[in-house]
Amino acid sequence: MQPFPAQRRRLYFMLFLLLFAILLPAVILYADGWRYKPGFGLVRTGGVYIDVPYPDAAISINGVQSGHSGFLQRGFLQRGFYIGNLAPSAYVVRVDRTGYRSWGRILVVEPQLVTDARVLLIPDEIDLTRLAVTGTASSTKLVSRPTYDSYIAAFATSTAASSTVPVDQSDGIGLFLEKGDVVARWLRTNPPPSVFCSSPSYCGLDVSVKREGGPALFAQFFKGGVIYRTKEGGIYFGEIDVRSTPAGALLYAAPGADFRVIDEAIIVKSGSALYEVEGL
Could you list the residue ranges that cross the membrane (predicted)? Predict the structure, then answer.
């Protein structure tokens, strides 16, 4: 086989050199996160990561469905959804699941950064069942005498408000009662989690949790959120997140009612009666 003539070899070399010179900047820009986005032009992109610890939930971004949580073949929950190559902007994320209230959040995407959020779904139906030691009524839940007495004793514990001492702590976050508000405060020296951040590059240390019901009197952590009681409205459940539209629900509308989280159960005391919040 005869080799290519020298002139043709030079031509091929120049073509490959030209192709390399054209593609190299494009490859570098792509690896550095640059993308062309209609309406934005050439921009450095970011992404969002949504933690959805529930099966059968639909995730959408700006009204377009982006994923569906479910159990994998080995029984593990597919709970994390990453959506990348997003132009810097604000995006509306929504999560829907049958039997639960819709969860929504406006997430700000910044160049070369990932904005994350953890979904907290609140059931459509939350029940309040009266507790009793004896009885046959279907609307009551029977508990043992020692259990009932331990619940009564728990309400004898003082819950005096303080702006300097947290009423509860969990995973580096303290709950404080300040001027009638419930404030979640980051207590550690390392950067706070995303619920304290309005955008990936702008984070604070405090988040207001109370949104209604008058001055707050007490608060405790419960299943990723906060239970709090107010002077005028009753007992509420709220999500910790500085970003818009955090989830929340009224659990018991009765001024003067009190609660304690005991052994992962919400026990409510209204007058002399005890109740347990079920379904949350």
Answer: 12-31
Identify the residue whose tokens are 């159960």. 265
CA-based nearest residue to 85, from 48, 50, 135: 48
Q: What is the mean pLDDT of the chain?
A: 83
Query: Is the overall model pTM greater than 0.70, yes or no?
Result: yes
What CATH number does residue 258 fall under?
Answer: 2.40.128
Residue 246 bridge partners (DSSP): none
- Residue 239 belongs to domain spanning: 127-278
Say yes or no to pLDDT of 10 above 70. Answer: no
For residues 201, 168, 161, 149, the Cα torsion angle rounded to the nearest 10 degrees is 160
What is the C-alpha separation between 25 and 28, in angstroms, rounded?
5
Q: What are phi and psi of 268, to 5 degrees?
A: -110, 135
Q: How far is CA 266 from the centre of its chain?
A: 21
- Residues 167, 110 within the same domain: no
Do residues 132 and 198 both lie within one domain?
A: yes
Overall domain count for the chain: 2
Determine the pLDDT at residue 30.
47
**Do residues 257 and 270 touch, judged by C-beta distance below 8 A?**
yes
Report which of 248, 123, 250, 244 is spatially closest to residue 195, judged by C-alpha positions: 244
